[in-house]
Amino acid sequence: MRDDKAATPAVLLVCDYSLKYLGGAQTAFVRQAQALAADGVRTVVLAPDADELADAAESGIITVTPPRRGTIPVLDLPLLGRARDLEPLVAATVRRHQVDTIVVHSEFALAAAAIAVGRRLGIPVLHTVHTFFWRAPAPLAPFAPAVSRVHRSLTGIADGGRYRGSHALNNALRTMTLRIAERADIVLSPSRHQAQALRDAGAGRVEAFSNVAQPLAVTAAPEGGPLRLLWVARFAPEKRVEVALEAMRLVEARLGSGRVHLDVAGGTQRPVAGVTFHGSVPGTRVAELMDAADAALITSLGFDNQPMVALEAFSHGRPVIVSDPVLAGEFGDAAIGTPGTDAAALAELIVQLEADRSLLQHPREAAVAYARERQPAAHVARLRELADSARP
């Protein structure tokens, strides 16, 4: 059924993840939708719990929520059925809203259905990869065949490239992403280092294309008081919050109390001197904590692509302190890399920054410059260029 109000073609954004929970991928997805709508692009969001998208009606975003059949345990992934059963919903959405570009942000059944419909109808499909660096504990490697079977059953994709650079389960997880990426017209990677990894794996045309930064909200750096740091991420092993906490123990032992303070957004309270656990907090509270901080911490290693907390920090004029040297290289002077990857190296850097706050001045300026280049209007313009380049 055609939408008679549709005057111009629409962009369809597709994601298999629930929008009730805004992790990094969902945050990037929602910000892209908001950027498109704010730029006057007719924007359709097809995702589980899309009706939970805040301010969708006011911003002009059209939401479509697919029926949900349950949840895949452990992954907490909405179970939407098989791709072939979702294709009629995707096709009807495309026809009704006159979609001329599809952007998928995941690797499961809904994304596979959207790619299949796009290819059948000659509509460019862009696949944003939020992480190619899936990581699971090595003892779970025997579950790799089951993971592959489930993905094949959901997506209908039985052939394609195979990743072989890690243990069996990591290989299976990264193969999922690779096989979706192979079927898109363009693969979008928010970071250069992930883009290269995808090219090396055989993903086809891969473009480094940053996530959208939130509008600039630069505030003055804190004056006086302790050096304040902020850690914001999922509480998952790959994010290595324990590295930040151990670094704080070392700093406290060296400097005494009251010289450095770490705010942790998320998690449960535990007795760590100089650390405040805020539990789960809304985005507005994260922004307040960012304004109160001198810098944000990113302690992951070999996992992250382009953490959304970095873009948020930069938009507030805050640099990031990064344990991963590859990730630090992505952000240039807006990142301060630690001299090593462990807690002791992080503690050493924190002690240096506490002694000389002027070391933060240039990274603050670089952070604002990084965010300015990735503002919503510039993001939308580049996205449209890429989509146009993929048209027949």
Automatic annotation (TrEMBL):
Molecular function terms, GO-annotated: glycosyltransferase activity
UniProt KW Transferase keyword: yes
Domain Glycosyltransferase subfamily 4-like N-terminal, first and last residues per copy: 23-207
Record keywords: Glycosyltransferase, Transferase
Taxonomic superkingdom: Bacteria
Gene3D superfamilies xref list: Glycogen Phosphorylase B
Protein name: D-inositol 3-phosphate glycosyltransferase
Organism of provenance: Microbacterium istanbulense
Lineage of origin: Bacteria, Bacillati, Actinomycetota, Actinomycetes, Micrococcales
